[in-house]
What does this fold into?
Amino acid sequence: MSPDILPLSAAALTTAPVPLIDLVEQYDEIADEVRAVVDRVLTSQKFILGEDVAQFEAQVATYCDARHAVGCASGTDALVLALMALDIGPGDEVITTPYTFFATASCIHRVGATPVFVDIDPVTFNLDPAAVDAAVTSKTRAIMPVHLFGQCADMDPLWRTAVRNGLPIIEDAAQAIGSSYGGRQAGVLGTMCCFSFFPTKNLGGAGDGGMVTTDDPELAARLKRLRVHGDVGRYEHVEVGLNSRLDAIQAAILSVKLRRLSDWTAARQNNAARYKKLFDASGVSEHLVFPATHPACGHSYNQFVVRIEDGRRDDVLKSLQAQQVGCAVYYPKPLHLQKCFEYLGCKQGQFPEAERASAESLALPIYAELGAIRQERVVRSLAHALDVEQASPVYSIPVRKAA
Ligand SMILES: *Cc1c(COP(=O)(O)O)cnc(C)c1O
It folds into this structure.
């Protein structure tokens, strides 16, 4: 993954493009194993739920120490199913963050409830627990924190608010499988926890997939029923659910990948630590804000997101793109300012930290296979984009001379 001596010429180092994420490189490592399990499922012709899904559910439950895990068709559906399992609907409010992927809030809308946005903590980009506490009303039915970019929301104060008001917590852990808070895994930090297996998440399938974990047997049973049209068997429908199941092929592939997840997470964490060293060595550190980690959190770095202040973010983005370094803005427009949520009546300036994060955040490559050489290329490009005079070369590993 990152050999000490690299068979690259110095010229190649300075020019090779670095993608934001490279799924092909990871697949190459596991291709034989993945092809074998796909072939096995094809041979069985058992595609919907079944043994592969049950096994993978058990593995995820074990992985995050949850009692139950229920696979479904996507992370979005996981959120919808969790809300439905709590009977949340019209007239109900769910408190969440405006600085997240769209699905977090759209699911609340989808079940007929009202998303209530509150601002984020500028240091972690996650829900500000004090703002959540202040937003609770008699209509509040749940709190939905997002573990954004792979860092868990500050769950202790959120739970204090939840318990005081008799509210459940639904974790949106779509970006956070393998993350922890206070020594416990994302997946058991809420009443229910929703994962996504979208290909670019830390555990990504060969298409869409999702899962809900919970310790509550009644909620688990309800989720299992809701994902099959509310069917309790023999075409007896006790309620109207969805058709939202995890495919056996996805489960079989994800099961192969889950065995490597801890190693891949460690590689991402290692890359983040190396960015810190390289930023310091290159002088870049003074010109950006390094992603902070909450002391209780084990960050799984689904994204490595820095802040570029003073209105320079978009110029840095353009410069990195011109230098063929992959980067992206998550998320350029906070949800309270999206057209489809105009009906909520939120105003520009209402959540200043979410708006500032949208204007300043920049995601850099962090994928497990990135390696030191490509990271140094990212940092040199970043230094160039930021007009940082580099006092000394930032190379930290020996490079074999081109023959
Ligand atoms: C990806 C994501 C989702 C939705 O997951 P899908 O599997 O794409 O439906 C929900 N919330 C967050 C924060 C996400 O990043």
Notes: The pocket of pyridoxal-5'-phosphate is lined by residues 74-76, 100-101, 103-104, 146, 172, 174-175, 196, 198, 208, 210 (CB under 6 Å). The first helix runs from residue 10 to 15.
